Amino acid sequence: MSQxxxxxxxxxxxxxxxxxLIEFNNKKYLIDCGLFQGLKDLRLLNWNEFPVxxxxxxxxxxxxxxxxxxxxxxxxTKNGFTGTIHCTHPTEELTKIILSDSAKxxxxxxxxxNRKEYTSHEKAKPLYKPEDVELSMNHFRGHxxxxxxxxxxxxxxxxxxxxxxxxxxxxxxxxxxxxIIFSGDIGRSKPMLLYPPKKIQEADYLIxxxxxxxxxxxDENIKEELLRIINRTIERKGILxxxxxxxxxxxxxxxxLYLLREEGRLPNIPIYLDSPMGINSTAxxxxxxxxxxxxxxxxxxxxxxIHFINNYETSRAVVxxxxxxIVLAGSGMLEGGRILHYLNNHxxxxxxxxxxxxxxxxxxxxxxxxxxxxxxxxxxxxxxxxCHIESISSMxxxxxxxxxxxxxxxxxxxxxxxxxxxxxHQADSFRVKIKSELGWEVxxxxxxxxxxx
Length: 453
Description:
By secondary structure, the chain is of the alpha/beta class. It has two domains: 5-215 and 397-452, Metallo-beta-lactamase, Chain A (4-Layer Sandwich), CATH 3.60.15; 222-391, Rossmann fold, CATH 3.40.50.10890. It contains 14 helices and 22 strands. A hairpin with a 2-residue loop joins β17 and β18. The radius of gyration is 22 Å and the shape is globular.
């Protein structure tokens, strides 16, 4: 029997750019195809020649639709990838939305940089364009959970619910007699909207994320903490700006606001979802109720009091309006999107609040502000950070150290573990914890490192 070769092309030593290559019997399969984000040295990797000829890759298998797992697909397809891209049905729809938004932002950012002449290049250009996204979507094929997909006479896989975002899944791959589990991003033990991650009992190898491998989410009451932040902002007659990931986080926040409204405790102020991607993603959530663990009445009513902003003119008017309000806008790490226009206009007002509700990767504006930077650059100019900064750290779609460890305890026998999708400290802390509590063999791969299974 031929050896199985695994190579970590991204998501090693970082939480972005997830790409894991499996080779067997002259076939190549790429698990996730993410974009590098955050630090400049990481972002520049997106422009490098891909380590493997895209034409040689037989298929891509996606765990979910987040940009750090799917955002590099248009680059591969425009450079010669012609295989099938496998994912769940919700992931296919969400990926199209996320990639289209990514391409649009890249084009707009390049045009703005060239127009205002703040690019360090002779001419700024996008990594890919909307037409590249359209080309890539022709390769997608959606699947149900627990449906075995035959790739080759000795290779098959199925998707199992991971509880991270709508459509997210573990990949259980069987290659000959070996079973490999790819966790992608593992969800919380009790997700707010979704069903909890599927428990898995056996595997020979586990490729496991480690985003929060060094910490435990606080047990704060998220709804009460959100209400506290809202009330303090409204007392100052300020604006609450929430940089929100369009998929899962936006819908969770809307659900919490709905519950507060139903309880009669939410101040009577307008709530805006100013994110075309968030609005389109919400429509996909509405299409797949069976993926969500919600009472039917909540599912039917939770979006009723939200003002959805689709067009630029309305967005501009709301941006320039200084009256108290709650605004949810992308992107979640302040790397682009309409939230930048709100911050550009309101970040220097001490009455206002920025509320972070998710992981902020190294090198992002979100991480910089959260860590106390007093000046941030938007659109080529610096703005002083004078508004209040708040964070609800426990509002994460990623399982923390304890939740991931408890999930791993369901395995009846110890798999060999490869930890990826974590910054160095997080991955190493989780490695030590797994070894001390479970006694398992754990490897933390380096970028481009190869292993034979």
